[in-house]
Design a protein that fits this description.
Blueprint lengths: L1 E2 L5 H10 L6 H11 L13 H10 E2 L4 E7 L4 E7 L5 E8 L4 E4 L3 E3 L8 H5 L1 E4 L2 H13 L8 E5 L9 H12 L11 E5 L3 H10 L4 E5 L5 H7 L8 H10 L8 E7 L7 H11 L4 E7 L13 H13 L3 E4 L19
Parallel strand pairs: 1-2, 6-9, 9-10, 10-11, 11-12, 12-13, 13-14
Antiparallel strand pairs: 3-4, 4-5, 5-6, 7-8
Helix pairs in contact: 1-2, 5-6, 10-11
Bound molecules: S-adenosyl-L-homocysteine.
Length: 340
Amino acid sequence: MKWIFDLTFEQLKEEITAAGIKKFTAAQIFQWLYEKNIQDINAWSNIGKTTHAALAKQYDTTLNKIIAKKEDHAGAKKILFQLSDGNRIESVLISEKDHYTFCISTQVGCALNCRFCATGRMGFKRNLSPGEILSQVLCLQKEIPGYTGKLNIVLMGMGEPLLNYENLKLALEIITSEKGIGISPRNITLSTAGILEKIRRFEKDFPRVKISFSLNAPENVLREALMPISRKEKLPDILEYFKATAADRKHRITFEYVLIKGVNDSLDHARLTSNLLRGIPCKINLIPFNPNGSIGFETPDPGDVEIFSDYLHSKGYTVITRWSKGRDIKSACGQLAAEE
Ligand code: SAH
């Protein structure tokens, strides 16, 4: 039996017509699965009983199993999933003032081994399939039944999204398509540690999806120490690309900066950051380090965070400080490790 969420619309259409089912049924199936978010084949009322039986024989339509949910007081809910091979991933539902944000994973574990991140310490297990990525959205939607307001999706959960490019692309096609889940690409943000070739490609494939780049240090030596990937993917090259392509971009790049006490949170670091980003239309997102057992890393003092933020602000930057929600349930940035 095939897991239906891994099929594109075209693949589904081809397969069902080969099985003698009318072509237009594919659109109906997509509507039930993704728009109505109802996966029980027998409830698909505009499709006949014989077709129900044929579909049930060919396709598995069950979503990933949720094995734990944890909610904090600030409005973050962490969902732990068990995949069909026993691996585990996490998604986070964040309730904001006027909308919800879904934080979605793209890999089991992560290969990048950023020193301050709990997912990095798990190592890399495997890529998620297209269905395993997009079905997180369906499961989170079920947590807020009846809600029709604004939704944001952030690809900031476990993994480096751009290192699972093909599957992510297929998932995003269904997530953003009118035939599929129908979420506007403008409400989606991809966060990356910076794989330049893939950023370039992604911006061609999904020009309206926003890009967040995890800067985390204002020069490459410190960045290499924190994020081994920057030995290969050099900061100046990435920034040069953002500068050169700024005019083609419909949104500003967000630079995420995890502030770590005594490591990258001084006024000097703020000065370097300001000089570095000069000329790039951007926003800066400061994330005070979320504790996760990383040895030798601590959350900075709120006063130092303010000095850092005020300095950048005084230089004309838009700065948002994200004292993450969900810290007490280990669902904030850098805390996802799929532990129960
Ligand atoms: N691999 C992608 C997306 C996952 S991480 C990326 O690197 O962007 C999402 C964000 O969380 C990144 O900006 C990362 O730098 C940040 N982050 C990781 N560990 C953190 C921690 N312990 N505290 C605060 N932010 C952290």
